Fold these 2 entries.
Entry 1:
Amino acid sequence: NITLDDLIIIKKLGHGMFGNVFLSAHKTKKNLYALKTIDRKKIDNEKVQDSLILERKILMQLNHMLILKLIKTFKDEKRLYFLLEYVRGQDLFDVIRELGLISNEDSLFFASCLIIIFEHLHERDIVYRDLKPENIMIDEEGYPKLIDFGTAKIVESRSYTMIGTPHYMAPEVILGKGYGISADYWSLGIMVYEFICGGVPFGEGESDSYTIYEKVLEGKITYPGYAKPTNELKSFIEQLLSKNPASRSGGSIDNLKLHPCLKNIDWE
Ligand code: ADP
Ligand code: MG
Ligand code: MG
């Protein structure tokens, strides 16, 4: 049974909203972990504390190859700690920055993996709510892994909280109309567009939230000349970016899997 004293810190992997994430190893067994630290001073409000409790609860109940595993949590006077499976690799944000664009084929592979992840989450009434390249790590074998469940929520009915990252937020989230799992499909549509075009479709380069919301609500999709999506891929993106939440999956996740552009995917 592993404790904080069994661990040594090797290096910093990244930083989060409330602290750093470190590569860490077991002193004797040598297993590697990612240790996410949360500074207690930075979480002195009840809402943030609730969201961390929920992040822990949700991660603890999930067990899927494509979702980051939470092994244990610890606390001391100064910090909370999440001991996480270590993903050796890069996040998709850095991959896009490095490559500029992602090929149609790889984009569809990542999209299919995300559909499988959503199936797992949505069956459990979990809406992720913050799908974006930074929250997806690519492991050494090239498989994506969803990390950071800080905004995920269990919704039996509808959610009204305006949450997420403006460029990836669905119109109904922005409008405070009440939303559900379909908001995740919208974000997937934004991301697939970003893979093949190198930037987001609405409000690229814009940092003012209200300007971005306006662009999202306007919903005009154009493709830069250098992007070469097939017509099937365009129709897939545009289905995911339907204003009507119910149209995004085509009725159900099984229908979404039947989209013509995914015909070569082996769902096993
Ligand atoms: P926050 O919730 O504060 O955004 P994250 O959980 O997203 O924190 O972690 C911040 C960063 O740390 C990530 O973007 C990633 O670069 C790195 N990171 C987090 N978890 C892992 C992990 N399990 N393996 C490797 N790197 C990680
Ligand atoms: Mg994060
Ligand atoms: Mg978080």
Entry 2:
Amino acid sequence: MSASIILGIESSCDDTSAAIISGSKILSNIAANQAIHNEYGGVVPELASRAHQQNIIPVVEKAFSKANIQQNEICAIGFTRGPGLLGSLLVGTSFAKSLAMSLNVPLIEVNHLQAHILAHFIDDANPMPPTFPFLCLTVSGGHTMIVLVKDYFEMEIIGKTIDDAAGEAFDKIGKIFDLDYPAGPIIDKLAKEGNPDAFQFNKPRMENYDYSFSGIKTSVLYFIQKEVRKNPDFIKENLNDLCASVQRSIIEILMNKLEKASLDLNIKDVAIAGGVSANSALRKAMEINQEKLGWNIFIPKFEYTTDNAAMIAIVAKLKYERGEFTDIRTTATAKYDL
Ligand code: KG4
Ligand code: ZN
């Protein structure tokens, strides 16, 4: 039997992406980022959905041509139904529905958060995929949670943020430092030349496996306001140290709870997923725990960290095998539990 060829479409936030998967192998994974939001310091929903409208056809066409696949060769279409920005989700959802109708192939809805986690099952994501049950720290601009993954579609959130997501903390603190949006990757880069112990910021004291990131943001804000009153060039003169210190604090907060969960549940297969899993200090911390705590670690390739359609395609493939299809009358949903 030849491998199933599936088109995946992602449009939940500000990346329009399309991917073609054959079996578990990604043949193409195309994304168009929306630079329009940089000048606003965050994603503007109206502008995002309009940019998706402009990008979706060229992105899908490119995914087909890069994969060297004709439209009539695909056997299903997977799309992100939620969670995310409704106006953005509607573009991908409507497009997927129309194309599925015109090609007469089944439609498969995908939960964006499950997709971040299940990206670990893409052919070239890991030398060996994780074994169930495993823990997955899912860290993005919209979500921060520790997920107990019992099976492909049996996931339990055992801890989550009560306020800002980790990526949001990077982005908001970056804004205080006058960095462009999204600031996460910029902070990561600047931190490489900085001293992570230069400054100390407040750490939250949270029960169980939950997180909070609004405290560190406020702590940075007050500290900067105080220092800038004394020296207007304080940020400029200390930018690398500030970024390194902020990054160290955020990664320490993330890792402390993940270590606690691994210890309490006695699970040593530990994965990270989502945009913040691109962070070099988080990746390093995982590698240290592989040595120190004997973890089997699963770190996604860069192209599978931030929003991408390859992860949507792998979930669609897993559902296709299970015969789990979606009614064509479906609608996008901003909230969508794991
Ligand atoms: O998963 P993602 O692309 O979109 C959401 O579903 O939210 O994650 C985007 C988030 C942004 O907050 C961005 O700043 C953060 O991931 N991010 C990073 C890095 N690369 C992306 N944060 C820290 N270090 C990075 N290298
Ligand atoms: Zn995401």
